[in-house]
Design brief:
Blueprint lengths: L1 H10 L4 E3 L8 E3 L11 H31 L1
Length: 72
């Protein structure tokens, strides 16, 4: 049903993009010239939080390595 709706919108000239969140990838209509990457604010927030957590994880691993070097 969703595919039929999207197809009818495409035939009327609407443009669509797919969400950049890897586990979402839902199509969403391009409604303005604003460059949007995600289908909803929730998806964008989720990606942002995941990136922050990954950066913290790498930082902690780096600190562990530095700490081990100081012990030697």
């Amino acid at each position: 049903m969703l595919l039929a709706t999207v197809f009818s919108d495409v035939t009327r000239g609407m443009r669509f993009k797919t969400c950049k969140r890897k586990d979402c990838q839902m199509p969403f209509p391009v409604e303005s010239e604003h460059a949007r990457k995600f289908c909803t604010q929730y998806c964008g927030h989720l990606v942002s939080q995941r990136k922050k957590r990954e950066a913290k994880k790498k930082e902690r691993a780096l600190e562990k390595r530095r700490h081990k070097r100081e012990e030697i």
